[in-house]
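Before we proceed, please read the two lines closing this message. Let me know whether the structure tokens fit the sequence:

…
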Amino acid sequence: MKKKLFIIAGVILVLILSASVYVYRLYFSPKCIELNKLEYPITGIDISNHNGEIDFKKLINNFPDTLDFIYMKASEGLSHVDKAFETNYTNAKKYNIPLGF
């Protein structure tokens, strides 16, 4: 009897977790943006230290025909240099992505 209850509880738990993941993805996960290259022939992104660590290889693989350039934050005023600038610059150059600052 205890074994049956344990199995039923496990099945209920799996169903609840599955439903939770489904609801999260449906309502809360970020949506991918699809761009119309005929309407917007040149497209890019802007990045800074606020984006955290960027996986440039994944970025290029996910947007091979969409990412034409990266606009990168270098500084703010005279005293602030973006903490991720050097790393982002090096990685973008490694993947031959045109840059702006």
